[in-house]
Amino acid sequence: MRKILFMFALVLFSSMTILAQDVIDQNTQMNDTTVEDNSIVVIEKVNKDTPLNFKDSIRSLIKSTAFGELIPDTEEDIKNDILSKQEREKNAYILKVKDINSKPAKLYQNIIMILIGLLLVWLAIAKGFEPLLLIPIGIGGILANVPIANIGLAPVVKSIEGLVVITEAGGFLGQIYSFGIESGLFPLFIFIGVGAMTDFGPLIANPKTALLGAAAQVGIFATVLGAILLSTYVPVINFTLNDAASIGIIGGADGPTAIFLASRLSPHLLGAIAVAAYSYMALVPIIQPPIMRALTTLEERKIVMKQLRPVSQREKIIFPLSVILLVSFLLPDAAPLIGALMFGNILRESGVTDRLSKTAQNDFINIVTILLGLAVGSKLAADKFLKFETLGILVLGLLAFAMGTAGGLLLAKLMNVFSKEKINPLIGAAGVSAVPMAARVVNKLGLEANPQNFLLMHAMGPNVAGVIGSAVAAGVLLAILG
């Protein structure tokens, strides 16, 4: 109960500060759409977007596969590709110029964000909420909001007479962000470490649990629609399709994937999305159990599943190699995430790279985690975080997480209707990808219903399938919108 109250306090505090900020700065934020860069003046709304055509989206998805060359390009395709590239370049330029020329935050705004950073650190230390990332994120947020110091300022790069020159070095957090987040490297490095720590044996032993991991991704796509509806009917919130996709991925409960997608589609929302993703991952033991109890009966929770068969080393080596090849051909946009994950797993399972595997599991991922957290924290700047959109992200992220949990549970119940060998529906909740916390929650509820019901290894199947599923979902969204 205490943890629930703390979470509500965090949301309420954020809401009050966001509301106060928007009331004070409403006129300047609503009307000022001009960005100046020396003699260059850009008068655009970055959040302006065009409707997404379903038929064009499917065609775009197919053409993004390795077999896309089999579909001949029409004149319309070539024209749309050129326009799409120009639009992406223009929006990226506008965002970059806005960042460079953004006005310094007011002192009270910095103080509010420093307090939020302190709150994140307190939740991590006192309550154990994802301390490995919330502490670096909180400290990064505090440092980024220190007045005048410009610690979170990104390096300024300009083209002068054809030469690319760094005119301002920026702060050290800004440099870390540019190197690791803007380039997309840190989430991929994290996935190498996660792969080295992951045992895909339970998934290989019971392949049908992969369906549960896929079903749990329903929260992602449902939240994309929810973000679009929220933006349509709430005047103070303005999410583009790219923003909606970045917010929806929170439902996968996979922090690195959320950061990777947000850095590609909506870098201006990265801080809020990362904080929401990791906060809800930390709250898995609070958010999931009520949903799991509400959607299952006591008899269903008592179902005992038979022991999984042993999985050979050969199977464990063939699996990541097969996944790499399959994803690379069918969904190249997901190949970086899946490739990094499976590379780490091959280091673990090959049996001949123990030194590399241990390094990836320990020193490597620890170093990257520190840098990733600080870089994300650098985006908790007052001018980007204190907005109505942040409140919308917190609400939609919770909705995505809840729907993902429900999706896995309901598919497990449906599978039992057609299957002779019953599965415990609780393991479907582990498909949200929060490894291994979601699997532990499943095991705990199973033991509450039946002291002899050990579900941990069974839950790890959909749990690791959820990691793959969220990465594939991110690839789909990148293929359509990227």
Could you please describe the fold and organization of this structure?
- It is a single chain.
- This protein is mainly alpha-helical and 482 residues long.
- The protein has helices at 2-31, 54-63, 75-101, 107-127, 131-144, 172-180, 185-197, 201-205, 209-215, 218-233, 241-248, 255-265, 270-282, 284-295, 298-301, 313-330, 335-349, 354-377, 382-385, 388-418, 437-449, 456-481; strands spanning 34-37, 40-43, 156-160, 163-168.
- A hairpin with a 2-residue loop joins strand 1 and strand 2 (40-43).
- The longest helix is centred in the C-terminal third of the chain and has 31 residues, at 388-418.
- The protein is globular and about 70 Å long.
Task: State the main characteristics.
single chain, 482 residues, mainly alpha, two-stranded antiparallel ribbon, globular
Compose a concise summary of this entry.
By secondary structure, the protein is mainly alpha-helical. Helix content is 69%, strand content 4%. Helix 16 packs antiparallel against helix 17 and helix 17 (335-349) packs antiparallel against helix 18 (354-377).
